[in-house]
Amino acid sequence: MTRIDFDALVALLRRIFVAHGASAAVAEILARNCAGAERDGAASHGLFRIDGYVSTLQSGWVDPRAVPVVEDVGAAFVRVDAANGFTQPALAAATPRALAKVREAGCCVVAIRRSHHFAALWPDVEPFAEQGLVALALVNSMAVVVPHGGSRPVYGTNPMGFAAPRADGGILVFDQASSAMAHGDVQIARREGHALPPGTGVDADGRPTTDPAAVLDGGALLAFGGHKGSGIAMMIEIMAAALTGGQFSFEVDWSAHPGAQTPCTGQCLILIDPARGGTLAGFTARVERLIAQMHAAGQDRLPGDRRFATRAQTLREGIPISAERLARLEELALG
Ligand SMILES: NC(=O)C1=CN([C@@H]2O[C@H](COP(=O)(O)OP(=O)(O)OC[C@H]3O[C@@H](n4cnc5c(N)ncnc54)[C@H](OP(=O)(O)O)[C@@H]3O)[C@@H](O)[C@H]2O)C=CC1
Ligand SMILES: O=C([O-])C1=[NH+]CCC1
């Protein structure tokens, strides 16, 4: 293992995206996003995803030069047509308008459609919480999750990311799939030869299995927490696809693009100015009171703590990377 500096990793990933057809603006956003996941130790959506991005770009399934179209459709509603590009550039394009609406109306819905999301959600919500806002992001993906009691996949792994400001200027963040495990982690388990915990998925015949290959090759994942997670996955389909005009996970059809891996669906963000419920200081004091009770009850760490600790360490010491992976990235950067 060696270590790479965050900025050097961003520069290397930027070269890979540009070499595979991305515009400079899209490459910059995706490179920061993916390097940020690796920096934070978010393995399922860091460098592990680069081969998937590249094979998707080579397949012609996504437009890496897409220019998103931002539509102002109400006092607190912004719609974005990502134009078959990646979601993060569409969100970046909508952000100034959305922030202006939050300042005016106290809240804003951002509804993004025709968008590819292949990443973690916390990068989508953290910047808003750092500006004193509460942010909730919902994304659907590709049909790999069986609805509770069903026998074939309908839902995506449908993550939700939530962030809120804290009293000390920090933020509280959670970000999780609504499946028992993220699809990326099942792929990592197969690569590393690990069994899955019982209750993660079923094989092609609908039988419970702990074999990641059986889940990935014709099987499916289960929602976390039985019917409760299944209900959340359903809600996310409605918010990220029905509300935005994006595709449901079961509508994603990339069969004409062998190698494609990025689901083209939709994303919904809800931004709220907590000061409208009183004052920002009052809100953050209430958040701290809740956190104090959680700690007092024995919760030893908050969601986000592991990532923030990893981030602090890797920014200090560099991001660990194997020589083999670094060589592979250098090779991909040549196009
Ligand atoms: N784009 C897409 O379509 C999809 C993306 N994803 C992404 O995959 C990533 C991983 O998802 P998933 O595997 O479900 O996430 P995890 O189960 O690893 O973590 C979910 C959340 O719980 C927190 N957490 C974990 N363990 C504890 C603990 N013991 N006590 C308190 N909090 C804890 C994590 O904080 P911490 O981060 O600090 O560990 C995180 O905020 C997410 O970033 C998600 O957005 C998933 C599905 C689809
Ligand atoms: O890990 C996951 O479940 C996914 N990540 C991007 C699409 C689905």
TrEMBL record:
Leading EC class: oxidoreductase
Catalysed reaction equations from the record: L-pipecolate + NADP(+) = Delta(1)-piperideine-2-carboxylate + NADPH + H(+); L-proline + NADP(+) = 1-pyrroline-2-carboxylate + NADPH + H(+)
Record GO biological process: proline metabolic process
Keywords of this entry: Oxidoreductase
InterPro entries: Mal/L-sulf/L-lact_DH-like_ah, Mal/L-sulf/L-lact_DH-like_NADP, Mal/L-sulfo/L-lacto_DH-like_sf, Malate/L-lactate_DH-like
EC number: 1.5.1.21
Transmembrane segments: none
One GO molecular-function entry: delta1-piperideine-2-carboxylate reductase activity
Similarity field: Belongs to the LDH2/MDH2 oxidoreductase family.
PANTHER family registered for this protein in UniProt: MALATE DEHYDROGENASE, OXIDOREDUCTASE-RELATED
Protein name in the entry: Delta(1)-pyrroline-2-carboxylate/Delta(1)-piperideine-2-carboxylate reductase
Provenance organism: Sphingomonas sanxanigenens DSM 19645 = NX02
